[in-house]
Write a structure and sequence with these properties.
Elements: H1 7-16, H2 20-29, H3 33-42, H4 46-55, H5 59-68, H6 72-82, H7 89-98, H8 102-118
Length: 119
């Protein structure tokens, strides 16, 4: 189904769909950053949440997902692949020290280390 004219419907299917393939297809049609962030936070399927994170480009929304998402792997992916360390040094430093998951703390520390190595 083509949801491009109805992004709210696409987000609803992505978040609540019982068919993972349909939910992933709905994410692919989404471009609205706040809706993608909502899907990244609330979709039933972890694969759908990750697909939504991968489509995020808004650094404020990416930082929010990295900081607050309940799923460790989603937070890690947001930190490793999407978060711009030049814009979010303080957040990365905080996450490297205080995130509940060791794998996220490590990802944040490594992201900061690559920034320091470049400078």
């Amino acid at each position: 189904m083509d949801f491009r004219q109805y992004p709210e419907r696409a987000a609803a299917v992505a978040k609540n769909g019982l068919n993972e393939a349909a939910s992933l297809a709905a994410v692919e049609q989404l471009a609205d950053q706040p809706l993608l962030a909502d899907v990244a936070k609330h979709a039933r399927s972890s694969f759908v949440r990750l697909a939504a994170v991968e489509k995020l480009t808004d650094q404020v929304l990416i930082a929010d997902v990295a900081k607050t998402h309940r799923n460790t792997y989603v937070r890690r992916v947001a930190v490793e692949t999407k978060l711009d360390p030049r814009q979010h040094q303080a957040l990365l430093a905080d996450m490297a020290r205080h995130d509940a998951a060791a794998i996220v703390r490590q990802a944040a520390a490594e992201k900061l280390a690559t920034l320091v190595a470049r400078e």
